[in-house]
Design brief:
single chain, 313 residues, seven-stranded mixed β-sheet, five-stranded mixed β-sheet, 20% helix, binds the ligand Nc1nc2c(c(=O)[nH]1)N[C@H]1C(S)=C(S)[C@@H](COP(=O)(O)O)O[C@H]1N2, binds molybdenum atom
């Protein structure tokens, strides 16, 4: 496993005021209505900062403090920009994220194309979630987004919609990693419909009070906090409601190592390493016990009752 940073970033280098102001800007965007909120909305859309009030946060409370912003935006997996952890921050600046639309199609009564800027009007929340990579490291990140079920409500899935497929952007001129054939591009992911509709599942447009950095999946990505990070596709351009379980990029690449479900599970090791313990970054050692469903068991375990999670890993 590559060394991440030689020493933890001192907390004095975090600028709480800045982070706070950023958060308030987003909130301006979310509040809607007043002139100030309108300014906030514009500010959010352009990534600027502007004060306002707090977004709701209905996430289960967690005790860990959020990971340092600079670490969360510099230690990333986004293979379209290269395979090392520092590649996305270095290379993702080339991605054009505006204008950006998401096409929502398939087994739905009202297919539609939605502009990312419209999501701001649909009830953003800040959700502080644990985030766990299959590589046995985790972070705690204040995401900003809206419950995916609100998007589903817009398009009205039919009774044949059993799964949701998320297709991410495939733009070779802006994404140097697409030259490699390590995955079948575009990067696609999928969820069972009840997983997608679960209130913890977030269509995400921001983090730390700002719009997403390109390396974190700007302008819009999924966040599914009880699953390994690779289930949370970045820079999404199409959402398909489908009848059959989709073949996702990682399952196509190596289904023995990366299953469709990929629930965080200390009882199921990755074939090449243990999942029993994890490193909460910037900790260098796997000093924590991994929690089943990444700590969200109380909320999501019932989705899997009757399923053997060693078979459906
Ligand atoms: N399009 C795309 N989405 C992706 C990936 C990727 O390579 N391409 N990597 C995944 C993996 S393995 C992880 S751990 C998370 C990392 O998200 P972060 O860099 O914001 O922490 O993004 C996921 N989404
Ligand atoms: Mo990951």
């Amino acid at each position: 496993m590559p060394r991440l940073i030689s020493k933890p970033i001192p907390s004095s280098e975090i600028t709480p005021r800045e982070v706070y102001l950023n958060r308030r800007a987003l909130l301006a965007a979310a509040a809607g209505g007043s002139a100030l909120a309108m300014m906030g909305k514009a500010a959010f859309a352009s990534g600027l900062r502007r004060p306002l009030e707090a977004l709701p946060n209905t996430a289960p409370k967690i005790s860990d403090t959020p990971t340092d912003h600079d670490l969360a935006t510099s230690y990333n997996n986004f293979y379209e920009f290269g395979t090392s952890k520092s590649d996305p921050a270095r290379n993702a600046g080339t991605l054009t994220t505006k204008p950006w639309t998401i096409e929502i199609v398939g087994e739905v009564t009202k297919p539609r194309t939605i502009d990312v800027d419209q999501l701001i009007d649909m009830g953003l929340e800040e959700r502080i979630y644990r985030f766990r990579c299959v590589e046995a490291w985790s972070m705690v990140i204040p995401w900003i987004g809206l419950e995916f079920n609100k998007i589903a409500a817009l398009v009205e899935p039919t009774s044949r919609a059993k799964y949701v497929k998320f297709v991410t952007v495939n733009r070779p001129s802006e994404m140097p990693g697409l030259r490699s054939d390590m995955l079948d591009w575009p990067y696609t992911e999928g969820l069972r419909i009840d997983e997608a509709m679960h209130p913890l599942t977030l269509l995400t447009v921001g983090m730390y009070g700002q719009t997403l950095a390109n390396q974190n999946g700007a302008p819009v990505r999924m966040i599914v906090p009880w699953k390994y990070g690779f289930k949370s596709g970045k820079s999404i351009v199409r959402i398909e409601f489908v009848e059959k379980q989709p073949v996702t990029a990682w399952v196509a690449a190596n289904s023995r190592e990366y299953g469709f479900y990929s629930n965080v599970n200390p009882e199921v090791d990755h074939p090449r390493w243990t999942q029993k313990r994890e490193r909460l970054l910037p900790d260098f050692f796997a000093s924590r016990d991994t929690e089943k469903f990444n700590g969200y068991g109380e909320q999501v375990a019932s989705l899997y009752s009757g399923m053997d999670l060693k078979v459906n890993y």
